[in-house]
Each structure stands twice: as structure tokens, then as C-alpha cells.
Amino acid sequence: MLLQQYQDNIATLRQKIQEAEAIVVGGAAGMSAAAGYNWYQDDANFRKYFNTFAQEYGIDSIFGGFYYKFRTEEERWAYLATLINFVAEVPIGQPYKDLYKILQDKNYYILTTNQDTQFLQVFPEEKVSAIQGNWTYLQCGRPCHDGIYPYAEQAKELCAHIEGTRIPSSLVPKCPKCGGHMELWVRSFVFLEGDKYRSEHSKYREFLRENQNKKVLFLELGVGQMTPMFIKEPFWNMTYNWQDAYYITINPNDALLPRELEDKGLAIHEDIAQVIHDLVSDR
User: What is the pLDDT of residues 90-109, one digit of tens each?
Assistant: First the structure.
């Protein structure tokens, strides 16, 4: 019975993708977790890249290190440089590659709260809106001006100068305008919602405007309940209000389908990587 239900879900997913005139993908942390990159766990990837920090400070996850109160800027930037280098260096996860095969000939757009650049490494930038920033960019910590700066190459060089869990004081990044401290351009209390941020939202809104009267599939991948206001709730509202919209959520833990969408939606409580792989394999 469970196998039959799974096969039925795959068949419905395939049908809705084929029928859709536009597909809006919402991707969050669960998508990267399905690719083997879990920001909340003490796993092999964490130990490979961050073991020195785990042993020195008792940090038990990537996000744990990001929010850790380091004693000095030299220690903090040793960790952040390692984090940026991790994001830039790890291979593209298979679920992202499989999703590209599914979408490449479709009219689609991707909205993501992920900051790990996996979507951007696979899909054209004009097809992706990363609305919570990007781990490989820096901004002024104040911020004193509307500017973000790519930092992947500099972070790699910085990693070569880490001694234990510190970098030399002379290498701590400084704002090119005010000389103050820098921060990663990701959602925080000082997150810069400037031109780049507005551009990400503008691209997404334009796609919605162009396609709202078409047969639209909202495909939600790995969106949990931590920040439902960015993807989950807007997808629900648009599916409910748009006549020809349909909603599918894939998530082993948080695939939620409101009662109001029972006739316009499907919740697949399965591993995202497996579902997407099976979808590609059966094409």
C-alpha cells in the first residue's frame, strides 16, 4: 500500500510538471540536506571542514559556528573564511542536478532562502532569487553603503593563513568605505536590503506577474516551519487564489497541506533526493 501511494504520488508529480505552463520552485534548507549538506548537524562534512573549531570551541554544526560568540575578530574570521570556502568548494548536490534535468525545457523560476549558492551553481542567475543573501558575499557591518562584495577567492586565500583557529589581525576584512567591520551578506540584524536584495525580489515578482493567469505549479522543496512567510505561506495563498494553480510540497518532515488546498495540492512525505531521482529515472 505504501509503495502504491508513493508511485501514485510520483505519477501525479510527473503529470503536473508536464501540464504546467509555468513552474515556481521554492527551495530551502531541506533541499541542501537532501544533497548531503546539513547546516544543523554534526556530520562528516562538518568534521571535514570545521573539526578544528569543533574541538576548540565545542561547536556542533555549521550554523552553530556562525552564531558562536568568538572572543576575537581573528578567531571569528578564521571560522567565516572556512565557511565561505566550504560553500564555494563542495560539489553540487545530485538533487540540484536532477532538478535541472526536470526543469531545463520548462518555463520556470526558483525562489530560495538558501544561502549556499547550490541553486546558483546549476541554474542561470536570471532564473533564481536568493532572498536571504549569499554566503560568498560580504557587506559593511553597519552598513554604511549599498554595496556587496564577492569574497570566495579572498576567503580561500585567508584559509591558507589560519594558524590554529585564528588569522593575522592584518587580514581581518574591513569596509572599503568606512573602514569598519564587515559581515557576510546573509539574513541577520544588519542584513543589507539594498539594490541587490530588491533586484532578487523584482525578478521573482515579474515572473509571477507574467504567468499568474497560466497553469502554474508551485513546487516546494525542503521548506520547513522556521520561516514559512518567505515561501510556504505565499505559495499557499497564490495556489488558493489563482484559478489554475496547483501546489506540491516534498519534505520528509514538514510536507504540510492546508485543508483549503486538498483539491489543489499534494504533500509528499518522502526524501527529496529519492523523489527527484525517481522522477528523472522514469522520464
Answer: 999 999 999 999 999 999 99
Q: Quote the pLDDT of residue 1.
A: 46
E strand spans, 69-211 = 108-112, 128-130, 133-140, 148-150, 182-186
CB 13 within 8 A of CB 266: yes
pTM of the predicted structure, to 2 decimals:
0.95
Q: Please name the helix (run of DSSP H) or strand (run of DSSP E) that holds residue 246, with its range, or none.
A: strand 245-250
- My answer on whether 24 and 50 are in the same domain is no
Segments forming the whole domain that contains residue 266: 16-37+93-132+192-283
Q: Rounded to whole angstroms, how far apart are CA atoms 57 and 68?
A: 9
Cell triple for 226: 522556521
Upper half-sphere CA count for residue 29 (Cβ side, 13 Å): 15
- 154 and 61 share a domain? yes
